[in-house]
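dude i think i finally got it to work??
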Amino acid sequence: MSELQDAVKKYAADLAAKLNSFMEDISTLEVRTYTTPADQVPTDLSGDKIKTEGKAVLRAFTAIKLDGDTTVLAPTDPAGEVNGAIWELHQAMVKQAMENRTTMIKTMGEAAASALKALGQAGG
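look at this
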């Protein structure tokens, strides 16, 4: 039984570390919407940087903290109007990102509950 307890304890410790990292990652949800000329659509989106020839333009930005504090930047044209199509796309992406974050929080919560249950059953 000691091997099972050790395995469960290791799993719980690994999960705790992942939960800690996950909570840091989800503390602020950020969505950035860019526009770019068709010939500048990037082919390499690895990491946090979009690799283009420098012609991508940030058109909208939203940051939502876990406590609900929200920052939204919606650049306007010279007449003070926000481009409706870009704004609609940005809002759709914010909604999708929030749904994804909610699903991830639920999944991590279920994993944590399972780990605690297994740890309790293993006598750890």
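The mean pLDDT is 80.
im so relieved honestly
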